[in-house]
Write a structure and sequence with these properties.
Helix content is 59%, strand content 0%. By secondary structure, it is mainly α. It has a domain at 37-165. The N and C termini lie far apart (86 Å).
C-alpha cells in the first residue's frame, strides 16, 4: 500500500465517522403526517388527546372509556358537516405539526406536562378564536372546541360515565318533578 492510498483510506474513514452521526440524527427527526382523512390508524392519537382533555380522577375514571377514539372517529365521519370535518382535520394536522416542530415527537409520546401545556395553549387559542367571531353572522367552530365537546359527550354517554359518574337507574319509576337533593349527591342519568 502506498502512502497516497493510506491517506486516502484514512480520509474516507474519517469522513465516514463524521457523517455517520449526522445521518443518524437526521433519520430520528419526526415527520408529522398530513392527513387527508381520519382513519382507524388515528384512533390512538385521538384517544390520547381526549384523555389529556379529560384525564379523569380516582372517582371519575376516564381511561375506562377507552373507546373514546373510536367514538371521535365515528362522530367525525357520520355526524359532522363537511365544513366541520375540514376544520377538525386541519386542527389535528396542525397539532401534529406543532408537536413535530416543538418536541420532535408525536403527541402520544410526549410527557404528561408537555401534553397539558399544549392543551392549555389550545384552550386559550380557542377562546380567543371565539372572541374574534362574536359579531360574525356565520360562526366557524374552532377545532379544539369540537374535540372537547365530542370528548365530553362521548365520555358521559359511555358505560363508565353513565354508571360511575351519575346515579344510574336502569328501570325508571314514576315521574317526580321535584325530588330532594342531598349535598354531594350525583346527578341522575
Amino acid at each position: 500500500m502506498t502512502r497516497k492510498q493510506f491517506l486516502n483510506q484514512i480520509g474516507i474513514m474519517g469522513g465516514t465517522s463524521l457523517l455517520a452521526p449526522t445521518l443518524l440524527l437526521q433519520s430520528c427527526k419526526y415527520e408529522p403526517k398530513v392527513r387527508l382523512e381520519l382513519s382507524e390508524l388515528d384512533i390512538p392519537f385521538l384517544e390520547e388527546v381526549a384523555h389529556t382533555i379529560f384525564p379523569g380522577t380516582d372517582e371519575i375514571p376516564s381511561r375506562e372509556s377507552s373507546d373514546i377514539g373510536s367514538y371521535l372517529l365515528l362522530t367525525y365521519r357520520d355526524c359532522m358537516e363537511p365544513e366541520e370535518q375540514a376544520v377538525f382535520l386541519s386542527g389535528i394536522n396542525t397539532l401534529d405539526k406543532h408537536c413535530g416542530e416543538e418536541f420532535n415527537q408525536v403527541f402520544t409520546q410526549l410527557s404528561s406536562l408537555e401534553k397539558l401545556s399544549i392543551v392549555a395553549d389550545l384552550q386559550e387559542e380557542a377562546i380567543a378564536f371565539g372572541e374574534n367571531q362574536k359579531d360574525a353572522t356565520k360562526k366557524i367552530p374552532h377545532w379544539f372546541d369540537l374535540m372537547k365537546n365530542i370528548t365530553l359527550t362521548g365520555y358521559f354517554t359511555s358505560k363508565a360515565g353513565m354508571t360511575k359518574v351519575r346515579e344510574y337507574n336502569p328501570v325508571p319509576g314514576r315521574y317526580e318533578g321535584c325530588t330532594p337533593y342531598k349535598e354531594g349527591q350525583k346527578i341522575w342519568s
